[in-house]
């Protein structure tokens, strides 16, 4: 009987050794308890990497437009003939190269020259009525006539796009405070409009009739006037455009902004989050009076 017991024990011992040798290990009670008490977790397969398309906007130093994700986008597999620039968004977001300014209230009345008329289709879509004349300079009679009109008087703000056709010399700088005082007097009593003056810009490559004159001192004086009048705001298109000569590449005199420049100017005026309106605002293109009087200077260089 004792020999039989010893034989059974020996068999059990040999079986245990064979199990260990085969690599089978029983879980501990602690591990079993943790596994039974933990909730089930589903591990999803890794997402497939998406390669940015060629239409992604790539941010570069001084670039005005950001990629849709807000960060630079690089195509890891560029083609050998990758030379065309991607099309910018319709209303670009201001960047460090595009100075930020408070947008003009929707419905603001825009009074301008050919630069204002160039951007008028964009502004009209956002509800900004535009009145302008090709070749028009900043002038007291022009401001008086149109800012006193019913459309301007009922608007919540005024946008002035004038000065590109001015020389910007000492004579203009001396008259600028007078124009600002006139605008102050014309603001609607009881509902004083905020006024947004777009700084005029003549690119270095400009070769028109006013190329001998610069607008730096004019814009400096405009900024000084804005510092003295809380209701006057500078929309600094001149500073924004200084780093983007390509905004004027399609214009024969390199003075009028192309679509990129128009979109940038519109974004400065309306803000990048402007919402199109159901019915576009009116755009009025004025003709020169006949006969032309000394009150309305005409520029015959064929560019402005």
Task: Give a description of the structure.
The structure is a single chain. With 304 residues, the chain is an alpha/beta fold. The chain has a domain at 109-285: SGNH hydrolase (Rossmann fold, 3-Layer(aba) Sandwich). Helix content is 33%, strand content 8%. It contains ten helices and six strands, in the order H-H-E-H-H-E-H-H-E-H-E-H-E-H-H-E. The protein has a six-stranded parallel beta sheet with strand order 5-4-3-1-2-6. Strand 3 (157-161), helix 7 (170-186) and strand 4 form a beta-alpha-beta unit. The longest helix is centred in the first third of the chain and has 20 residues, at 2-21. It is globular, with a radius of gyration of 35 Å. The termini are far apart. The model is unreliable at 1-100 and 292-304 (pLDDT under 50).
Q: What's the CATH architecture name of one domain?
A: 3-Layer(aba) Sandwich
Question: Helical amount among residues, as a percent range?
Answer: 25-40%
- Count of extended strands: 6
Roughly how many Å is the radius of gyration? 35 Å
CATH class of one domain: Alpha Beta
Helical segment count: 10
Mean pLDDT, to the nearest integer, reads 74
Q: Give the strand order, joined by hyphens, for the main sheet.
A: 5-4-3-1-2-6
Strand content: 5-15%
CATH homology superfamily name of one domain: SGNH hydrolase
The biggest sheet, with number of strands, parallel, antiparallel or mixed sense and barrel status, is: 6 strands, parallel
What structural class results from the helix and strand content?
Answer: alpha/beta
End-to-end C-alpha gap: 123 Å
Shape: globular
Give the helices and strands as they follow along the chain.
HHEHHEHHEHEHEHHE
Poorly predicted spans: 1-100, 292-304
Instruction: Briefly note the CATH topology name of one domain.
Output: Rossmann fold
